[in-house]
Amino acid sequence: xxxxxxxxxxxxxxxxxxxxxxxxxxxxxxxxxxxxxxxxxxxxxxxxxxxxxxxxxxxxxxxxxxxxxxxxxxxxxxxxxxxxxxxxxxxxxxxxxxxxxxxxxxxxxxxxxxxxxx
Length: 118
Hints:
The radius of gyration is 30 Å and the shape is elongated. Helices cover 64% and strands 0% of the residues. Among the domains are: 13-39; 63-114. It has helices at residues 13-40, 45-48, 63-81, 85-96, 102-114. By secondary structure, the chain is mainly alpha-helical.
């Protein structure tokens, strides 16, 4: 017989694995239940009533839209400084199709005015 035939299991090893699995399963179930309860609570009444929209109001912009448009405007300004006007025209056409704040729209118009004809 070989020495490997006589392996002795460590005491309590199997019991620890079983307890650990059930403990983790219980924690996961508790977290899932807590998350479901949080999502199902209705928002306060003040948040559910929409504010009256006027026709002159710009559409709601997300923070990501504002930041990405700002970065594109910075990129356009950099292109203008490097005199890469063909790429600047492509960036302008991309920017014109994006939602912008009034300040961003004004900055785009200023950069477009600096673009030489061609």
